[in-house]
């Protein structure tokens, strides 16, 4: 049985837990204690203590992509945990920026002063970690892409160009006949990530967790309802079970919930599910 506890999310199940714009999940499997994303700050540590989770015992961490709200807690994690290897894409420390509501540009990347570090494994291609875990990226489909991605930029030389999300990776966990897919923001599109699994890997996950990037915090703007509806119809017809959070946004979630019913639930800081 896999146990997933939400350490960081934009909302919380109660006032007992802190919320912030970010994501961090603690996962226990038969073989591993995993941290998937580290939130924007040290909030994940505070909430872990309240949930009686010993983060020093985590043996493996994954940062889904090179944005601060998923890897901002890296320095603090390295301080409190001396054993876990942390897996990121090779371009995770490239400079990433976001367009603000007033048209200005802000740095939303990771702290590259942490490089080099032997605890960090930079992943170029798909990677199997034992028999239970697999990291994959390089998703090329473009169905139902979020229009909010246009506010995401990266630096190439002296130029700021549209982010191609080559720094994004997803995690597969296989245990006892179940396959769990975990995504951070699914900037490449949850539909495209699933189709990549279906066609390129011949894998059908039983459960999916992740943000869908259907809300812009900077602009306080949700994705167009029509696009969200199309995503919801596609996901519902798969018959799979989804747990979403973070950058999906409450308005978009309500549209998805109307279409998908019990096949989609929302995770908040302090929540726990078992798969």
From TrEMBL:
Q: Which residues cross the membrane?
A: none
Q: Which residues form the Metallo-beta-lactamase domain?
A: 22-81
Give an example GO molecular function: transferase activity
What's the protein name?
A: Metallo-beta-lactamase family protein
């Amino acid at each position: 049985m896999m146990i997933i506890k939400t350490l960081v999310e934009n909302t919380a199940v109660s006032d007992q837990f802190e919320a912030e714009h970010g994501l961090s999940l603690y996962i226990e499997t038969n073989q591993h204690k995993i941290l998937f994303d580290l939130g924007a700050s040290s909030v994940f540590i505070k909430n872990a203590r309240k949930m009686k989770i010993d983060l020093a015992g985590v043996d493996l961490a994954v940062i889904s992509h090179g944005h601060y709200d998923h890897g901002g807690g890296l320095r603090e994690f390295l301080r409190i945990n001396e054993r876990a290897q942390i897996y990121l894409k090779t371009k995770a420390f490239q400079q990433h920026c976001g367009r603000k509501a007033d048209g200005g540009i802000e740095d939303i990347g990771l702290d590259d002063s942490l490089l080099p570090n032997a605890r960090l494994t930079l992943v170029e291609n798909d990677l199997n970690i034992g028999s239970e875990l697999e990291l994959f990226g390089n998703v090329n489909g473009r169905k139902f892409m979020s229009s909010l991605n246009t506010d995401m930029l990266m630096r190439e030389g002296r130029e700021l160009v549209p982010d191609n999300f080559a720094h994004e990776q997803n995690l597969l966990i296989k245990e006892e006949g179940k396959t769990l897919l975990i995504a951070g923001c699914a900037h490449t599109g949850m539909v495209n990530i699933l189709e990549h699994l279906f066609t390129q890997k011949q894998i059908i996950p039983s459960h999916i967790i992740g943000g869908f990037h259907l809300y812009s915090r900077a602009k306080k703007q949700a994705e167009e309802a029509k696009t969200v509806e199309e995503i919801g119809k596609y996901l519902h017809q798969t018959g799979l079970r989804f747990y979403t959070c973070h950058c999906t946004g409450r308005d978009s979630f309500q549209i998805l919930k109307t279409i998908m019913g019990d096949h989609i639930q929302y995770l908040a800081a302090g929540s726990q599910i078992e798969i």
